[in-house]
Amino acid sequence: MIYEDGFISRKTLEYLHHLGIIDNPTCIICKREVESIDHISRSCPHVVAIFSKLSPTFADIPNTMDFKHWLFEHAHNNSPSHAFNIPWVVIFCFAIWILWNQRNQFLYCHQNVDVQRAHNLIIERATEFWASISTPATGSKQGPKFISWEPPPPFWYKANTDGSTLGNPGNAGCGGILRDYQGRWVVGFLRNIGHTTALAAELWAIKDGLSIAKSLQLQNVILETDCRVAYILLSDNLNPFHPHSTLLMDCRDLLRTISQVQMKHVMREGNMAADAIAKKGALAPHGFHFLFDCPPDVELLCMADRVGVCYLRR
After folding, report:
1. Range with the lowest mean pLDDT among 1-10, 209-218, 256-265, 305-314?
2. For residue 155, what are the contacts with CB-CB under 8 A and spacing of at least 6?
3. 162 with 176: CB under 8 angstroms?
4. Tell me, what's the pLDDT at 202?
5. C-alpha distance from residue 81 to each of 21, 125, 205, 267, 277 (Å)
6. pTM, whole model, 2 decimals?
7. What is the mean pLDDT of residues 127-136?
8. What integer pLDDT is reported at residue 59 of this predicted model?
9. Tell me: the pLDDT tens digits for 143-184?
10. In what order do the strands lie in the sheet with 170-180?
């Protein structure tokens, strides 16, 4: 078992103390007990608080159980987790890994441990993972293919959006373009969001794109994103406990305000111009910025879209 007998167990303070590398093996967070693999997994009050927040039934598998059996029970529990409808084993595995990372960030980077922040990060990562594997991709793999931006039908508008982060989480931006059925620039936008996750940046881009379409009173709109997880989350039932539930709710409300709107997932090769603007957003001054004219360094990509240039996807 790698977790108990391998990498992580050999990094605990108990093990380092056993080797004579450190003098004090006491847990750096609770400062009550020796930092053993058992302690950092289920006994530390910080860990107990997070697991209790993740699942009210967490204590149904008692901590008095032998550690290997306790770990086995949680790692093979496929029942839906409380309120998230994601198998508990998925939540549990992400929790163990993120709790370990948070402990290291506290030790080496002096970042405060926070129950709510850890809880949100666990749910976000687990939700992204589960959404990406639970909905099969359409079509079958047929080798390399060519992908291009496709203009909307006559008298429709298309909004392409994208997010960009310098690290995940990290300094983030988003951006997008609204174009008509002839590929002509209507308006663009970018935003520097600040420090957040890649998924949040994608959702901010979708929200801004829909907000602009609403403000321009456009009634026939196709919105495209290359973030499959964002597309699935907006297409599925809203989970009020998701860390980004407010953003998701805002996007859903905006989708309902446009009389004819379609949301599509596209490959990144069909979203190149929006990607270039999103990267500019991550480096721009904080806040939202309109782009009434196409930036010179994006014009070539927009021209390629208008004439139907294809990009090879392997």
Report:
1. 1-10
2. 181, 220
3. yes
4. 97
5. 40, 14, 30, 32, 38
6. 0.70
7. 72
8. 65
9. 678 999 999 999 999 999 999 999 888 899 999 999 999 999
10. 260-265, 220-225, 157-166, 170-180, 185-196, 287-291
186-to-9, 189, 209 alpha-carbon distances in Å: 57, 11, 12
Query: C-alpha distances in angstroms, 275 versus 7, 147, 161, 227?
Result: 38, 15, 7, 11
Residue 7: predicted pLDDT? 45
3-state secondary structure of 135: coil
Average pLDDT value over all residues in the chain: 87
Token pair recorded at residue 267: 């490959």
Residue holding tokens 């539930």?
245
Residue with tokens 């969001």: 193
Q: Please state, in angstroms and rounded to a whole number, the distance separating the CA atoms of residues 49 and 94.
A: 16
Cα–Cα distance, 241 to 263 (Å, whole number): 23
Q: In residues, how long is the chain?
A: 314
The tens digit of pLDDT for each residue in 84-126 reads 678 888 888 889 888 888 888 887 787 788 888 888 888 888 8
Task: Answer whether the bond into residue 243 is a cis peptide, omega within 30°.
Answer: no
C-alpha separations of 62 from 48, 79, 126 in Å? 12, 17, 24
244: DSSP letter: T
Beta strands in the chain (DSSP E): 145-147, 157-166, 170-180, 185-196, 220-225, 260-265, 287-291, 311-313
Q: Would you call 32 helix, strand, or coil by DSSP?
A: coil
**Amino acid, single-letter form, for residue 135:** T
CA distance readout (Å), 253 to 52, 158, 160, 206, 231: 32, 19, 19, 12, 15
- Of 154, 156, 133, 287, nearest in space to 221 by CA: 156
Residue 13, φ and ψ in degrees, nearest 5: -65, -30
pLDDT one-digit tens code per residue, 268-294: 999 999 999 999 999 999 999 999 999
